[in-house]
Amino acid sequence: MTHLDRASLDRLLPATPGSPDWDDVLSRTGAQQRRHRLVVVLAAVAILAVGTASAFAMRAFLVDRGFIGLPPLGATPSTPASGELAISYWVGSPPGANPGRSQAWVYTDGRLIWLRETDPDRARLQGAANRWSTGFLEQRLTRKGVELLRSEIVSSGVFGHDKPPPGSERIPFYTEIAVRMGGRLVPVRWVSDLRSLETRLWDPASWLPASAWTQRRTRAYVPSRYQVCYGGLPTPLEPSRILPLLPPAAADLLRAKGRTRREGRRGWAGGPFVKSYDYCSAVTTREAREIANALARAGAKQRDPVQLNFRVDVPGPKVVDPIRPDDGPVRNTVFITFEPLLPHGEATCSPCG
Amino acid sequence: MIGRRGASLDELEALYRSRFDVFARVASSVTGDSERARDAVQEAFATAVRKHGSFRGEGPLEAWVWRIVLNAARSDVRRTIPAIDYEEPASANGQPERDAELRVALGRLPERQRTAVFLRYYADLDYAAIAEALGISTGTVAATLNAAHAALRGRLEEART
Prior knowledge:
The complex is a heterodimer of chains A (353) and B (161). Chain A is α+β, with helices and mostly antiparallel strands and 353 residues long. Chain A has three domains: 32-64; 85-220, Mago nashi protein, CATH 3.30.1560; 225-352, no CATH class. Chain A is built from eight helices and 18 strands. Chain A has a seven-stranded antiparallel β-sheet, with helices on one face. In chain A, strands 12-13-11-18-15-14 form a six-stranded antiparallel β-sheet, covered by helices on one side. The relative contact order of chain A is 0.13. Chain B is mainly α. Helices cover 70% and strands 0% of the residues of chain B. Chain B contains seven helices and no strands. Chain B is globular, with a radius of gyration of 17 Å. At the A-B interface, helix 1, helix 2 and helix 8 of A face helix 1, helix 2, helix 4, helix 5 and helix 7 of B.
């Protein structure tokens, strides 16, 4: 039976027309769901108001809960894709609240996008993506709501001084608050009452009036694009060394993208600190999913509960991590991180909270 | 085996991307038409996405998807007149005569035997996965393939005498 080999059967079968089209699969899913939903709605019309059925249909496209990494398939991205930042802040929890850190970005179009992390051994986050993080969430303010939030910061901030004026306190290095003034984002360096301001920024829903919201209920922030960064750890590497170590599908996508070099320092409180760098590319959500899937198929594992990231071992001799010399030689690795690109075009560092 | 509940959509997408061509070409052995086979695969994966939570993990995910793909292809055949033509000459590939004989012999197999042959020797599934895909027991897979081998051997020898 020598004919029954794959090559012989391959010659007999007609070529597949076209290439794989996962979006088409998903659209068919949607079509089927819509057909199914239509049947449900027609049946429900007899007993329910049309408005109730319409509300049900809308919810099917939104994600109510935050997520880590990539959005569920078919989730509707936040619109508009881009936005102008009006306020940004990164504050610690006030007394009495669950311990943690909260980052938020407020846009002139009213979007309030935020992320909160906590120590799961000390507190529990309600409705969170997991025990550590809410994931990126979104609410929507009215124009008045944005102005109320901005006024709260401006009225507490002390501007126009190089040194802290009497009666003010300096914002510590681990807290960041910036507000748009005169067409640019101005960092707040001194405030009249830091604790009060942090308390209000921690939970705007606790004091902003109902008229400040067009959508007070939190939903997941679903980005349109992601920032994929890759570098060597502990020894930094150039893309020419990194990309050949990645699965071809991931490497080809990243190779075709523009990239920026991101420089920083790595170390522990008390030192030592060493210079470090990696490279970042902006990709669509679909491309990010292709890269992540390729890495996962190649056996790379997600390593962090608050960020989608992977590590790939670098072959060759082990290296000494200059910030942990006592550990002796360790395997150098390539790390690949995925962060949502926020509407103003920047990504944050989820595990930095 | 202790099963798990549900397949992740990422797993389904990865399977789709890595095996699309195999799914579509084996489906064409059922539909007899590559366009309709492609459509059956697209519909089948849409079904798999909608029903991913019902995958019980008692066998490989791929076998579960194969079953959906083959059902979609068979549904397509039931809706239309099969356009398959196993008597046509093979394409120019250096072995036209031998391929033409095999094409005709495969075309004369019962559909289950023919599908089992493609799943085993083209899609490279093991007996357990073929059993899951065809909805039959592993023993029946072995019997089906044995019957297919015997029929093919007989027809190929007949063609050469």
